[in-house]
Amino acid sequence: MKKVKLSMRSRSVMEGYGFISLWLIGFLLFMAIPLGRSLYYSFHALQVSKDGLIATFVGTEHFRAAFTTDVNFLPLLKDTMVSTLTQVPLILIFSLFCAILLNRKLVGKTFFRGVFFLPVIIASGAILSKLMDQGAANLPIFYNQNLYNKLNAFIPGDILEILLKYAESLTLVMWDSGVQILIFLAGLQTISISLYEAAKCDGATAWESFWKITFPMIMPMMLVNTLFSIVSSFTKADNQMMSHILNVVFKTNDFGYGSAMGWIYFIFIFLILGLVFLLFRKSLNNTEGRK
């Protein structure tokens, strides 16, 4: 029997499907049916009875209500978008900076990697909500030292408010950067040292080596971290949009309207992720060409 020889790309594709096969099986077994039911519920008004849920078809009434009658949906959606646009770039910059430092020859770097990843385990879910309720996510120095009045003489008020808002969110940025740091670190360790040696022989500075070698080579990891950070930002414990949907479903028992809001939110996130893919496509194609 003649053996079929696969090309390197075909083998890579097969390896990729092998890695995601467990997730696909889990999705089909545990998530496909609930997602289908939620889509069905979003077009129906549901009433709880002794025989179960009684569904009455209402068409797109729930979807229209989210944009026309719900006074909280659109403001919360806007606030979630603004929060994502401000925090995701900070998380990417901070995690890349930390990964570059941890990739150097450093005494105890394994310990520091664990320290940066520890918040991923501790500050998540209900624990994160509890910490934020206690004010752990805010840096008191901005209030105790009255920095706004002290810096307002040198920086315009409108710009200063934005800068202090970014600075105040540094705690959340550090908490949300553990996974991204490890992904960037794995990407940095795949770059051949010979590339940097050749660039150094040609007279390239460290800054030029970063933009000409490091940054293009870790572009696939940049895409993964961007997608991960966006999804994490839209679904984390302090997300007010998620809290609003959960309150509608579990406190008012309006399963149909809650399902409709969930699907609108999902489509919104899907469009954002699609836009990110389009923005990164050219960079990824250039990276593949270099390889």
Topology:
Blueprint: H1 8-42, E1 44-49, E2 52-57, H2 61-68, H3 73-102, H4 109-122, H5 125-133, H6 141-144, H7 147-151, H8 157-168, H9 170-175, H10 178-188, H11 193-201, H12 206-217, H13 219-235, H14 240-250, H15 255-290
Helix pairs in contact: 1-15, 2-15, 3-10, 3-13, 4-10, 10-13, 13-15, 14-15
How does this model look, in words?
- The protein has 291 residues and is mostly helical.
- Helix content is 75%, strand content 4%.
- It contains 15 helices and 2 strands.
- α1 (8-42) runs antiparallel to α15 (255-290), α3 crosses α10 (178-188) and α4 runs antiparallel to α10.
- The two termini are 35 Å apart.
Mean pLDDT rating = 81
Shape: globular
Number of helices: 15
Radius of gyration: 24 Å
SSE string, helices as H and strands as E: HEEHHHHHHHHHHHHHH
Fraction of residues in H or I helices: over 70%
Structural class label? mainly alpha
Major β-sheet strand ordering: 1-2
The largest β sheet comes out as: 2 strands, antiparallel
How far from one another are the termini?
35 Å
Number of strands: 2
Low-confidence stretches are none
- What amount of the residues lies in strands? under 5%
Please summarize what this structure is:
The chain has 291 residues and is mainly alpha-helical. The protein contains 15 helices and two strands.
